[in-house]
């Protein structure tokens, strides 16, 4: 099949639409570079939407002496709170203390370091707790500690970086895979294939960035015909979603006897998110799912701590992802570094490959990547992402913006106004424009999801299928029944046909 050739020589082409790929593309586009990005599936469809939804320094990383990573992550926590108040917000954590596990002095020392390693402008510090009969934990757990971290809507963080990159001139292609990248006269000739239509096209670029996550080694050897200088170890992390375990808005970090920790996080008002596991994954990164063994492990940890006892039947949903960690030959998956490694293969056509990383430090990873490429792309501008809000983030705070939405669009109701504020920020004003009553928003698919919102997501945020809307852009897959989901899928297909005509 012949491929259409793009005559323009781009500065940078990014393969991979997860948090690292979109973060690099966004930073580069904002520095005035000509940028393209392709993602073989949906944006954030793999590792980047299967996280524990936290912007955090990584309290447990202190035990493995990863002080640089923790310091950088703590500083980024403050940056992201300012950049994206619609999708990032403070979360208080309770760490129950049981003397037969980590001793109190060790926890106090760790929390002291956690409070002071990075700059902390807005988040309260840690404190010791005495737990009483109002606690959802078992009565014998009477002591604990409380500290601060942050929640993030991980998939929307990816989407907003892609959207901002596009606003600054980047081309973003979804469901488009790179089938070959070859060198020609010191540049890259990149062959792309649309996975829905089979249509092929070519892009030309000075530099190629491999941000394919779990596929990073496979891409180097397969598509570029080069050798990978680093290895990865794929670590599977699985999560459970269950009915809400606690009535307040605090999270729990549970210490297990094997030394691992498990989070119990408030999720979508009515649910708790439990995770994560750490187990070696040796199969296809596309085929990852929570095993019965992982589910039993997480339920056992929770049942050891909480008064409410969970069974398999209580599991509402599960999700799993593969974390592509740079292989440091550690025997313990929990001890493997979450830091990132950038490998620049500076042959005639430069290839920059991203190994590892964590969602909290994606912005610093992008800055480090562009610093490595500066000699090859000397025309790039200066770093800029630390201070500019992500799209929709110009709202002040969620509470005030939700109050404004209820005032200006009373037909929304408080629950939907809060969801819009915590997902879109000011972006929701795009699809609310001209709406004065509920009927103006078109079809109602259930759980407050309407045609106006869905059409916005397909027209402006690359949603192509019902799952893109339900699980990555809104999380309403937890609330719509099968018939409602089929109705949504039919509408999306029809709407896309109309728009393509």
UniProtKB/TrEMBL annotation:
Residues 385-487 form the Alpha-glycerophosphate oxidase C-terminal domain. The keyword Oxidoreductase applies. The keyword Oxidoreductase applies. Gene3D superfamilies: 6.10.250.1890, Alpha-glycerophosphate oxidase, cap domain, D-Amino Acid Oxidase, subunit A, domain 2, FAD/NAD(P)-binding domain. It comes from the Bacteria. PROSITE patterns: FAD_G3PDH_1 (PS00977), FAD_G3PDH_2 (PS00978). Its EC number is 1.1.5.3. Keywords: FAD, Flavoprotein, Oxidoreductase. Residues 11-363 form the FAD dependent oxidoreductase domain. SUPFAM superfamilies: FAD-linked reductases, C-terminal domain, FAD/NAD(P)-binding domain. Belongs to the FAD-dependent glycerol-3-phosphate dehydrogenase family. This is Glycerol-3-phosphate dehydrogenase. The gene is glpD.
């Amino acid at each position: 099949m012949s491929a259409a050739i793009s005559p323009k020589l781009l500065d940078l082409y990014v393969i991979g639409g997860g948090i690292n790929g979109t973060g690099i593309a966004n930073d580069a586009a904002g520095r005035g570079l000509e940028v393209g990005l392709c993602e073989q599936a949906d944006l954030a469809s793999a590792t980047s939407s299967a996280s524990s939804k936290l912007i955090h320094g990584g309290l447990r990383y202190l035990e493995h002496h990863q002080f640089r990573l923790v310091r950088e992550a703590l500083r980024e926590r403050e940056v992201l709170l300012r950049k994206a108040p619609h999708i990032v917000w403070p979360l208080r954590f309770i760490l129950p203390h049981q003397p037969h596990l980590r001793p109190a002095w060790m926890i106090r020392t760790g929390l002291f370091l956690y409070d002071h390693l990075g700059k902390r402008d807005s988040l309260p510090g840690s404190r010791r707790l005495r737990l009483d009969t109002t606690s959802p934990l078992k009565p014998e757990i009477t002591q604990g500690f409380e500290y601060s971290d942050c929640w993030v809507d991980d998939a929307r963080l990816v989407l907003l970086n892609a959207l901002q990159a596009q606003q600054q001139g980047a081309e973003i292609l979804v469901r488009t895979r790179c089938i070959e990248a070859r060198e020609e006269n010191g540049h890259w000739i990149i062959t792309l294939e649309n996975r829905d239509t089979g249509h092929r096209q070519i892009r030309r670029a000075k530099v190629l960035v491999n941000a394919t996550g779990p596929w990073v080694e496979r891409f180097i050897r397969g598509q570029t015909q080069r050798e990978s200088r680093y290895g990865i170890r794929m670590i599977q992390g699985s999560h459970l979603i269950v009915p809400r375990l606690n009535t307040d808005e605090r999270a729990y970090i549970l210490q297990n006897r094997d030394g691992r920790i498990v989070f119990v996080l408030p999720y979508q008002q009515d649910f708790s998110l439990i995770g994560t596991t750490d187990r070696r994954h040796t199969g296809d990164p596309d085929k990852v799912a929570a095993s019965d063994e992982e589910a039993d492990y997480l339920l056992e940890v929770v049942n050891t701590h909480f008064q409410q006892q969970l069974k398999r039947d209580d599991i509402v949903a599960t999700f799993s992802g593969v974390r592509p960690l740079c292989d440091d030959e550690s025997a313990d998956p929990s001890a493997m570094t979450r830091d990132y490694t950038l490998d620049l293969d500076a042959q005639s056509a430069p290839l920059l490959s991203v190994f590892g990383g964590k969602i909290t430090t994606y912005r610093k990873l992008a800055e480090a990547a562009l610093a490595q490429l500066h000699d090859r792309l000397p025309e790039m501008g200066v770093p800029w992402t630390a201070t500019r809000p992500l799209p929709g983030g110009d709202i002040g705070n969620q509470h005030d913006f939700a109050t404004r939405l209820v005032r200006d669009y009373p037909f929304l109701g408080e629950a939907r106004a809060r969801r819009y504020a915590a997902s879109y920020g000011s972006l929701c004003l795009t699809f609310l424009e001209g709406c004065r009553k509920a009927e103006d928003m078109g079809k109602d698919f259930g759980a407050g999801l309407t045609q106006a919102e869905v059409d916005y997501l397909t027209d402006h945020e690359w949603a192509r299928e019902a799952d893109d809307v339900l699980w990555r852009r809104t999380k309403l897959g937890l609330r719509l029944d099968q018939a409602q989901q089929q109705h949504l899928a039919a509408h999306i297909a029809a709407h896309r046909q109309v728009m393509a005509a």
